[in-house]
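Structure tokens please, single chain.
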Amino acid sequence: MLLSGIHTLTLLDYPGHVACIVFTAGCNFRCGYCHNPEFVLPEKIKERMGDMIPEEKFFSFLETRKEKLEGVVISGGEPTIHPDLPEFIRKIKNMGFLVKLDTNGTNPKMLAQLLEEKLLDYIAMDAKASPERYNALAGTQNNFSDIQHSRDLILHSGVSHELRTTIVKGWHDEVELKKIIHWCEGTEKYTLQNFRPQKTLCPTWGKYSGFTAEELKKFKKLAEKFLKKVEVMG
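Here you go.
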């Protein structure tokens, strides 16, 4: 497993649990607003190869945190592009930690394997845009049926989960958001993440902005008409 970074403590990223975050390198999306370009772009990853974290070092760190951390968040990049992800998670689980996976949903085969082996305790999947605008926002050509399949697997998994949308003024409006919300119906939790333009994969995305507190409140109220639990971040 190619590990590109660790946040040693988070109280926010794994709801209800004290956790750390480990980031995998590489992604099959090129979302312009991505705030982790160093974990996504091949040229950035190549520049940072000397800073990659060996698995042994990560597990040594976990060994020292057994009494302090409850869970591990696996984020990226996109973790499910790595074929050794199941073995990596097994090692974490064998140490007694809960595991939360952050995913873009493009690898339902991997997700199905992880669920079948009961390796996941929480899943957060992106719902980036309405189906017809998904590829434009993701910056790549994707099979949306794979993302749909992943959504269905998650909704029927019995595993705690959330679907989440990073909302960007100029890309998302009430009409677009309503389409996304309907696509997310049945989720245990839905999170609206306000876009922050400080650091982006594509420099031109610096011209976009997030929404005001009042606008976010309006979007939350809209989502609550259809979804049972809605949270706003940012």
